[in-house]
Amino acid sequence: MSTPIIGHRHHCAFVPGLQETAAAIGNAGVQVVSTPALIALLEETAGSGVQAFCVPGWGTVGTKVDIAHLSPAWPGIEVQCEAVLESTKGRTLSFAVSASQQGRLVMRGHHERVMVDLSRFSIPQPISAGEPIEFFFDFHSPWCYLAMPRLREIAAAHGRAIHWRPMHLANLIDHIGGRRPLEASSAFVRWFQQDLQDWARLRRLTLSYHPQFPLRPSRALRCSLYAIENGKGVEFIFNVMRAYWSENRDISDLEILGDLAIAAGLDRSATIQAASDERFKLALEANNDQAVQVGVFGAPTVIADSKLFWGNDRLEMMGDYLAQSNGQNN
To answer: What pLDDT does residue 184 have?
Structure first.
């Protein structure tokens, strides 16, 4: 988990509906957007603005609001919200927040949120007897970054562990003669890049290509095997994905990998050494061999009970499968 930067500014736009008016919650005849609804929009703006700084499974929850409702906002018209990080103290984040509509200030004040392990706020789920989910990924694929938080949510909801399987995607593609999306027609590439940004917004993640894309992922992949072996796989893997796809950092640089290791709670020098360790080179090759054997042809790929799901957009389908599978097993 990294510390958000003071002054970090985030904007969101919402179009409130009739269900969010004061009349809809019992204040008869008052057809303006209710105070609770506007506060909820400000909370969402603040929370989504710092979500990228949290590791998978962590997020922020609101703990305090001090808001003045200055003028009415009307349903069906866009409300612009802004959250500016003013200070941090441990895991507590303090924001200045505001909402406006058609250039008119509607609401202004302060809001506090705390970084938390979201498992504390989840409805307990029965533990399934199902096998762990296999997640084949490569840092080279932005879709793996987009998929990882949602995958963890779905797995936790169905009581499934995740086995993290780093693989070298380019080597896999060469081996099986697979396709490379960015080498397709220009029309497809334009849509592909649009689709990436649409999914990034849905996942509340910032995503951009590194200026030197593609970076060589091998070192980071080997280091991730070391992190998995030492119980910090989730933290390190997400740190690397965020560094590459949200922060434009060079994940082939050993010094940067060392910094990401420290942030994940790993030994810096041992992680750097893992990048050239023959044992982890062989382990990565073994993961690629396994990927070929089970029919992987791209990333991200999830294997659940020998059933293959490819792509970030197939995660909900996997969740539906797990729900049915768990129902049959219980």
So the answer is: 66
